[in-house]
Each structure stands twice: as structure tokens, then as C-alpha cells.
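Dear colleague,

As promised, here are the two records you asked about, laid out in our usual form so they can be pasted straight into your sheet.

NAME FIELD: protein one
SEQUENCE, THEN STRUCTURE:
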Amino acid sequence: MRLCVTFLFLVISLTAERLPGHGKNVVLIAGDDEYHSEQMIPQFAKILEERQGFHCTVLFSKNDQGEIDPHARGNIPGLNALKKADLLILFTRFRDLPDDQMKDFVDYVESGKPIFGIRTATHAFEIPPGRTYSKYSWNSREPAWEGGFGRRVLGETWIAHHGDHGKQSTRGRIVAGQNANPILRGIPDGQVWARTDVYEVRLPLPSTCTPILNGEVLTGMNETDPAVPGKLNEPMMPIAWTNTYKNARVFATTLGAAEDFENEALRRLFVNAALWAVGREAQIPPKSDVRLVGEYRPTSFLLSYREEAAHGRPH
């Protein structure tokens, strides 16, 4: 019996070593109060671990009782885990963290290690002027840091909704010349679909950015809906791009609600981007394994959207 258990352990270990993410540590941060990152990020971590071999640590916004609370904007414990991270995956919105937590985050960003930003990461922080890390705020006006972390590191901050939020979904269209990009490997044109709308960005994006996927605004909230005719899609807005910061690889996407993650092509985009970010693009297979792990029943962002809209907050 002991020999059987030992043999099984060796088989599992050898299998894990053959997976493309083996040996890389990823810290994923969930802290938005609209798109249910607290549901999507753990599922993403499971896929990265079980299907790709990464080692993942998931951090959450928590309230004073230590409970996971997307509305608790001032506390994400455990950010010191970034000291050993090879990749940061960020999905936060309007966080205002204490200096000790921000220091762990900023130390990682400035270390020149890869960064992966999801949807509201363009407006990840809302820190009042005069604070130590206020330049990271989405609305920063500090010279060379206008637009904060979103603009300076990812490539764009919050601008506006381009599609009609909650009424017009998004189809991903491969940017001309990007078909061979390893991040898009195994993803046919038009297969990425998200219930979230297209975000507006300023065109062109900074010169360090390379758009790889554009967002086609659809007439409704179904995957088979046609594109909106006319100027709304002329030109289409980038919804996924690469960038560099401190010589590190950066991937940013304005998709990513928990519901969006039900789309297989979008999951493949995210997994491929994680492998690319840590320099494992040569190991991205023709079709990455992105099967969901366990049960996944995401909550609709439309419930939160109606609450937020009443307060006139950006989304």
C-alpha cells in the first residue's frame, strides 16, 4: 500500500513539473465591488494551479471582522506575499489602502516583475491627494503620473463606458497583424465574448502598448447578437493589450466580470496571458487547458450595477 501511495505521488509530481506554469508563484488580488472578482479570481487561481501548474495565493478585500467583503475598500491583508511572487494579477476597484499595505504593492510594481490587470484595475485605487501613495489613484494629476497606476503602469485609467453598460455586450476581434501573438493561441477571431461592455480608452494608447484584441460592441446581451452599426464600432476600442513597465511585461484587459469567465475563449486568453507574462510563451500549447475546476455559478454584475448607478459611480 505504501509503495502504491509513493508511486502515485511521484506520478502527480512528475505531471505537475511538465505543466507550463510549474515553479512560478502568482498572487491574485480580488477587491472590486461590482463585477464579483471575489468569485472569478478564485476560479482563475484554480485553473492556473490545477491545469497549468502555477502556485497561487489569492488575497481579498476584508472588513473589520476579517470577512471577505468587496465593499471594504481599505483593507487587503496578506500583500507581503508579493515579496515571493513571480506575477501579480490585479482585479481591484477604488481601493484606498493603508500605507503599509500599499508599500508592499508598490515595492512589487517598482521591482520590474510582471503585472496582469483585469477590467477595473484601470481604476484600481482612489487615494486622496496628499497621501503617501496618492499618485497611484486613478484620477492622479501628479506630473508623470497623470491617471495613476492605470495610465502609468497598465496603459489607461478610467475614461468612460463606450458600450451601453448592462445593455450592450462585447465580442473580441483580433487586431490586424496579431494573429500569431502567443496570447491569442487557440482563440479564433470572434470567440471571446463578454457580457460586460467595452470601456472607452484614448486612442492611440501610449506608444509602449500593443493592442491585441479590439471590442466589438453588440446590440444586446447575447453572444449571437449582431454588432452595433455605425460609428460606435468605427474604430473599435482595444479591450486587451500588452505593455511594459520597468522592463517588465504587462498585460491589461477591460473584460473580466465573473460572468465573463464562463466564456472558454476568454479563460484561454487569461491563461495564455499569464504564461506570456512570466516568459513561458513558448510553452503555450495550441489549445491551453482552461476547463473550470469544480462548480462555478457566478453572480450577475447587473445586480451590483443597479446599486452603483444610483450613486453615480464609474464602473
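NAME FIELD: protein two
SEQUENCE, THEN STRUCTURE:
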Amino acid sequence: MLSRQFIIFLVFSFTPIFLLHNLYAQKADMPIQTLIIDPGHGGKDPGTVGKRKYEKEIALKVSLLLKDSLKKYFPRMKVLLTRDKDKFIPLHKRGEFAQENQGDFFISIHCNAMKNKARHGVETYVLGLNKGQEGYETVIKENESVLFEENHHEMYGGFDPNSPEAAIYLKLLKDLFRESSLSMAERIQKNMCENLGKNDRGVKQAPFVVLYMCGMPAVLTEIGFMSNLNEESYLISEKGQRAIASNLCKAIVSYNRAYGQALPRKPNATRNKK
């Protein structure tokens, strides 16, 4: 977790940036023009280890498919991935990448796992606090990525999400980006669950480090459970990955439509045929 000194630095260094970002977005009522897609884990950090695949592999494949789908609908949208290969990227570096590229929205893609192997379905998180035991298990699992960072004790050591410093920073981000983040999270849940018949585990809030770090509207979506054998089979299949990417794309299309962008053109599958 983030150190106390680092939280104080974030609060006082980035507050003006957050405020300017929010004022500009409200004034222009802008849809997403630059999207940051964050495939969870990578490299030496495998994420959840399933029976046949690692979480890092599924997250990357779905992210790449999502990028391809979005470019068909929005050819002028700038779509960037925090990683496009099996490479370890520290959580704070993912946030820095998003800010350096002036992202309008940050979507982190993950796979879930729990001791109860009967659990299944999709859930999407926005930044906040969640003291529920089940949600806490997911938070611990995803935040463990910091342990793969060489200087994680210096960067994250001693951070308590309930501390006054963290509360200030958390409230700042929630106040600025809560409406946009919730809007996207709800659209992801609607498309993934209604169109794919997935169990709707709802929109939740949790103190994910990667959402702390990006400084913009953001969600973390858990696209299925690798601890459930049936769901893992779907997640590792090409059909499943394409369906998931397609419905994440539909959620983003719906979001942009709601925030003022004209209806996107439909991909023309026969355009290149002679």
C-alpha cells in the first residue's frame, strides 16, 4: 500500500491537476477521447493462477481485442494499453502512464478468484472503501501486485486506507470522478450480464491501488472467476474473450453516447472485400 509520505505528496501535488481535469470535463461535457486500458498483472506477476491459464494472459488478450473493437467504432479515439505484452508494470507506473498521456478514462481488466469455487459472475469496482469480507478478499488479491515491485516497502509501505491522509485523497478522487466512474461501471455490468447471461455481482467500491494512482475517472472490472472451472473455460476460450471484449466495447459506446458523442458508425465487416 502507499506510504503516508507518498499520500501527502499525492494530495498536495496533484490536487490542482485533478481540479483542472474535472472543470474541463464538466465544461466540455466530453466523451472519452483518450482511453487507457490496463491489462492486470503481467510478467513476473501472474495474477490468479487457474487450472490452465494465468490471469495475466486472459487480461491481455481481452484488452487487445477491446482495443481492436474500439478502433472500428471510433477510429479517432486514442486507445492506449499500459502493457501490450507479457511484461511486469508497477502499479504506480500504470497511473503515471495514464496521466502522462492525458487519459479521459482508465479501465483495468482482471479475473476474479475466491476460495469458494462455486462463486461466478462479473463485478466492477470504482474507487472507495469496502469493508465486506468477500470484497476485501478481492482487494487483497489485486493489490498484492505491489509485492513484485523491488521498492514496494518504500513506495507503499505503511499505508492505511482508513488513515486521515488516505481519506483526504480518497474523498478528493471520489468527489471528482464518482459520477463518471459509476456510469461506466453500471454500463459494463449491464452489457456483460444481460448480453452474456453472466451472474451480476454488482457495482462495488474498493481501495484498489491502481485506481488511486491514475487520477481520472476509472473502473476495475473482474470479468469472471478463474476459480470456477466452468467460468475459467469460458475465459480462456477465443469465443469467450471476443464476447467479453465486444460487450466491454458496447459499454464504452453507450457511455460516449450518453456524454454527447454522436452515434458511432457500425463496423463494416465487408468494407475491405472486393
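A couple of things worth noting about protein two: Confidence is low (pLDDT under 50) at residues 1-29, 143-149, 268-274. The CA atoms of residues 52 and 159 lie 35 Å apart.

Best,
R.
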